[in-house]
Amino acid sequence: MAGKFEIYQDRAGKYRFRLKASNGQIVASGEAYESRSNARKGAESVQNAAAGATIVEVES
């Protein structure tokens, strides 16, 4: 089973998304949005960007 994005309303009434792995563990979460549709767009943006993303190690 693949991971999934969940769109939900937080305690402050804002909408957020989180990415859950197939084992149910949260592996990423998004910022607060005013509307459910904007939270969905945020999740879709991450989904599209991640497809071709590379991993880069940054030295501090």
From TrEMBL:
It comes from the Bacteria. Residues 10-57 form the DUF1508 domain. This is DUF1508 domain-containing protein. It comes from Pseudonocardia oroxyli.
